[in-house]
Amino acid sequence: DVATRKQTHLQKCPHWVSALAISPNGKLAVLGYITTTPLADIEMWDLEKDQRLKILGGLRRPIYCLAFSADGERLLAAGHEGKGQMWNVKTAKKLYEFEQGNEAVHH
Question: pTM of the full predicted structure?
Fold first, then answer.
């Protein structure tokens, strides 16, 4: 936490983190992982409670890019194979999918 200079530790992460984004209000973090399975997970964490809230999925690993919208209501995830998804943060509903081609999407 930059304001309080307090370091935050999430519970043990199961894999190598390949992407990270913090919500505009600083209360949520999303992490993309490099896993040994073909599909990647995106975990959403409550930073104040150090608690995993949701797992979003459906992209091929690894996740290279995670970004919140300015209002914190949507999350964009993209990575391997040029595919991406937009999610509603509150409902964890997938809103949109896009494909860039065979090129990986990087931040």
Answer: 0.77
